[in-house]
Amino acid sequence: MLQPMTEILKNAKKGGYAIAQPDFLNITMAAMYLEAARRLKAPIILGYGEEYIANSEAKNLKHLVKIIESLVEEYNIPVTLHLDHGQSFEICSKAIDAGFNSVMFDGSSLPFEENVAITKKVVEIAKPAGVSVEAELGYVGTADDINDDSKLTDPKMAKNFVKETNVDALAVSIGTVHGQYKGKPNIRLDLLSEINESVDIPLVLHGASGTGHEIIAECVKRGICKVNIYTDLVNVMEGSLRNDMKNFNSDLVSVTNNIRESVIQELETYIKTLGSENMI
Questions:
Q1: 177-222 pLDDT per residue, tens
Q2: Where does Zn(2+) 1 bind (predicted)?
């Protein structure tokens, strides 16, 4: 059943575990993720980026929501449909109107005051609609970005940001990156602990792929309640396809089933690391 992210994350924060948020491009990927969560009896957050609509088999956001609602009915688990990295107030508003029950406004590249102002506007229209809001403070870029401490989340600013915006969850920058790492990740666990002590809402980790399951498990202990995953899932899809091509497997049914099981197994590993297995 679809439900706001707030309730799912409240339970995660109270229980000391985290919820996986895998991003999907199309309905096939969403179904893989739901199956993994169903097998492990875990809540799940389906993340969807505004740029994916052309690949989703849906005509528009409202059509997408209808498809996901129909799909979710077959799985007896808590599910949130979440707009990931909404880049404007307008796209967040469209997602809320379409029936998403959670949105992220990503103002991480904006000045603090502008990030606060737009996030507040999103919260003001989301709360009456029963929709959860995630925001980002600090900047989680890619390995190609020039990374310095100024892009990490400042605990004092995080406290002020949460107080001023009344968001439900906060994505933080502690050294992770979107996509592939170049070199060994340098994750600031000490900073995460400081941020967690400064705010009383669930924290979100973007850029989990390649970070390492031991580090991720430690992040959960230090306040992370939601973990975004994409690159690792895409990598196992591509790896499964390459393996079948290498072995001259041209049976489309087998190729498709192998990709499906590979993704399910990868996501199951994440769910176990996050501690959300059997949490429904």
A1: 888 767 677 899 999 999 999 999 999 999 999 899 999 999 999 9
A2: 85, 178, 206
Query: Does residue 279 fall inside a structural domain?
Result: no
Binding site feature residues for dihydroxyacetone phosphate: 179, 207-209, 228-231
Q: Are 272 and 20 in contact, with CB atoms under 8 Å apart?
A: no
The boundaries of the domain holding residue 113 are 5-274
Count the domains in the chain. 1
Q: Which residues belong to the annotated binding site?
A: 85, 106, 136, 178-179, 206-209, 228-231
Calpha distance 47→5 (Å, rounded) = 11
Cα separation of 101 and 69, whole Å?
Answer: 11
DSSP per-residue string spanning 89-137: HHHHHHHHHHT-SEEEE--TTS-HHHHHHHHHHHHHHHGGGT-EEEEEE
Catalytic center residues:
84
User: Is the pLDDT score of 147 beyond 90?
Assistant: no
Give me the CATH number covering residue 22: 3.20.20.70
Lowest average pLDDT, out of 15-29, 151-165, 248-262, goes to 248-262
